[in-house]
Description:
Rossmann fold; seven-stranded mixed β-sheet
Amino acid sequence: MIAIIDYDAGNLRSVEKALIRIGGEPVITRDPGVILGADHVILPGVGSFGDAMRSLTQYGLIPVIQKAVEENIPFLGICLGLQLLFEGSEESPGVEGLSLLKGMIRRIPSDGPVCKGAAPSGEPLKIPHMGWNSLHFDHPGRLFAGLEEGTYVYFVHSYYLEAADPQIVTASAFYGTDIHASVEKGNLFACQFHPEKSSDAGMKILENFLQIRRV
């Protein structure tokens, strides 16, 4: 069973449908017993960092998430769910994140180039970054087994991860700046992009996640 954590952050149904498509058994829930009894846990989300942290607090989900990670239940954060795992965000100054991983969430600069190595065009970048972008695999990541360097995935975000430890970064992308697009530490995984919206590559990423077992 796969627990999809419900904290009013949206994007739950598209994740649920993608998991059903690949043969998973997802349950959308905020019940601590269901979450901690799951084989896999997913924290999706779109919206504001500050609002999301307030919702997690309101529903008493912060200690549940911490315990799930401590117990090595395979855990995947998606988009806002990735951002919440870190220490804080420029979107919501003064609001502390879950701090399960070290790093900060920064605003994508609007004056950077679209492609790495290109000069800025003088036109501001479109923010949010919305659309397909290729991945560079910085370190071997279990989520990306069977995928080729340069695989395209789908992003929708205005803020990006700057991880403190580059060794946990398994994939990066470029849009105005280097974006830490996916991380892995133990059984804790996260993607800034949306695997559930990333066609066959995204389905493969979710399939790889479901192959991971608690240790």
